[in-house]
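=== RUN LOG ===
request id: a7f3
mode: sequence -> structure
chains: 1
length: 340
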Amino acid sequence: MKPQICLVPKLKGLGGTASFQARFIQGLEARQIPYGFDLNDRNNTAVLVIGGTRQVFQLWLARKRGARIVQRLNGLNWLHKIERSPWRAALRAERNNRLLAFIRRRLADHIVYQSHFSRDWWTNVFGPRSIPSTIVYNGIDLEQYHPDGPGSPPNDHDQILLVEGRLTGAYARGLETAVRLAQAVQKGQDRRVELMVVGDVSESVRTRAQALAPELWITWRGIVPRENIPAIDRSAHVLFSADLNAACPNSVIEALACGLPIVAYDTGALAELVRDGAGEIVPWGADYWQLADPVIPPLAAACSQILRDNPAYRENARRRAEEVFSLDDMVAAYLEALVG
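=== RESULT ===
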């Protein structure tokens, strides 16, 4: 029977799972594999559950009809347990955790974890599963995300880049850390330092961030089209990855593919992603699971090291992306789980 893949749920928006779905569809179309979003379509041979869905009964029916259920898992919602959140937001976060855990426990035939960190997190919280599982990192088009093309780092100053879909609520902490990082790097050298921020940042968060370092040069790019990201990555000297306990952040693999090295704290999957001289990962220096403030000087020292030896780090970054983060390899790994 010819394979047909059902993707659940249908996603729109910035980055994350929506970005993955768009890239996976790109891979399916290149292979001329039919796909859709209707769980009731009896031609479905497999279902890829990308995120939480309320269509649990329809998912059960699809499995009963013989469709293979593959679940893609990243991390768990957890910030609502540490910081005070509106009760509706906290309830929604915990409900999504439990929904994904139910699918993992009762409906999935195969689980694809985005990283070793992701697998270990789910196993520690909800226990092991006896069904097959694989670890597949996110992948990108290495021709689209490439060191060659428009954009190059400035010669007269150093640019630190921060790229996140949204820097609001608890995630604004990452922006504050980026400001303190850039400020510390600036104090240690004569060359000017620019912090370039790409993402959705409210005016109040911008004002608070700028107040932390009034003298710091911060450029606010706002939300940019996805196709502009490669040029932005090529125009920086280093990317600071601010996402805390991320399973496999797209901003990191996109930067690596463009030859942009990474500086970050050792949380989530970053230490397994950024290897072989593609950047520098340093200890947080406190309990980040409790959102304790990070220690800035080691991060600033690592960033300065990357700035001093930028050409070598850039070569290593691209090499790491070519070895690990190919879109074709990612799609092939998912199809192996879905179709066999």
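=== NOTES ===
The two ends are 13 Å apart (CA to CA).
DSSP finds twelve helices and twelve strands in the chain.
=== END ===
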